[in-house]
Amino acid sequence: MNTHSDALRTSSYIFFLCFFNCLLLIPQVIHAQDLFSPSLLQDKVVIVTGGAAGIGGAIVRALAQHGAIVVFVDKDKKQGTQLSRELSNMSKTHLFVPGDLSKEETCKQVIEETLKYFDRIDILINNAGFNDKIGLTASPSAFKKSVETNLMHYFMMLHYALTSLKKSKGTVINIASKVALTGQGSTSGYAAAKGAILALTREWAVELAPYDIRVNAVIPAEVLTEAYKTWITSFSNHEQKLQQIKEKIPLGQRMTTMQEIANTVLFLASPLASHTTGQFLSVDGGYVHLDRAFTILNEKND
Question: Mind telling me the catalytic residues?
């Protein structure tokens, strides 16, 4: 009996079995609860702007599922109330603050109410914003309004939360957009705001490093939110248009899910990213940074 050969065959079998199982997992969208401890952010007080739906809603749910106390603000009172009811049914401690973040008093109110109910702020997630399609043909006043709507509340929220974040040695996560890096056409206001958000992410990371406050940005690209669905269906050939976009996404030729954005935010908010600051994390399947020739090469390989 060749014990050495038997052992070698057994270990080889185990290796290939594990390797095969890993391959099976690759194309799947893995939910955060399968990756992180439910107590990853236990009792951390987190503010999320634009948190009632879309990417913001996914972030709020993920945070609550991992022990965080979530305060979310949104001007959509109906959707915010629905999400609040959902969190209550899950016995998750939270606070919904309805309000328009373009108004300075709303930003200040969110911070004051958070401190009133929970006495601290550990994490600020600036997410609210929308692509209003303000391009070069729009008036200067429309451009100014677009920039202010998509940018100013990022500054105001951090301004009013700063004292508390210094006490907690907290974390700031800014949600940006691929438009800041690639352009899109007819989006001057939105692109200017999102580009500024990336610049401020680096600026704030430098300014706040002495206080052990980490500041990072997440950059989504093609994410199938309700707003994205509304946009894509505005085309007469929307199914063909969506397929063309998917084919240009190198990893899996599919859209990024809202859950995948939320998973990345969870990582950056947690101690797992304790020495990560001033970084831009593109969660897009390689859409922005990989060579577009990939699509052609992939077709040839097929």
Answer: 190
Give me the amino acid identity at 51.
Answer: G
Element (DSSP H or E) covering residue 215: strand 214-220
Per-residue DSSP letters for 163-202? HHHHHHT-EEEEE--THHHH--SS-HHHHHHHHHHHHHHH
Largest CA distance in the chain: 86
Pairing mode, strands 69-74 and 94-98: parallel
pTM as predicted: 0.87
Burial 98-114 (b: 16+ CB within 10 A, else e): bbebbeeebbeebbebb
Instruction: Write phi, then psi, for 46 (nearest 5 degrees).
Output: -125, 130
Dump pLDDT digits (tens) for 176-217.
Answer: 999 999 999 999 999 999 999 999 999 999 999 999 999 999
Exposure string over 117-143, b if 16+ CB within 10 A, otherwise e: ebeebbbbbbbbbebbebbeebeeeeb
Query: Quick one: CATH architecture of 32-223+256-285?
Result: 3-Layer(aba) Sandwich (3.40)
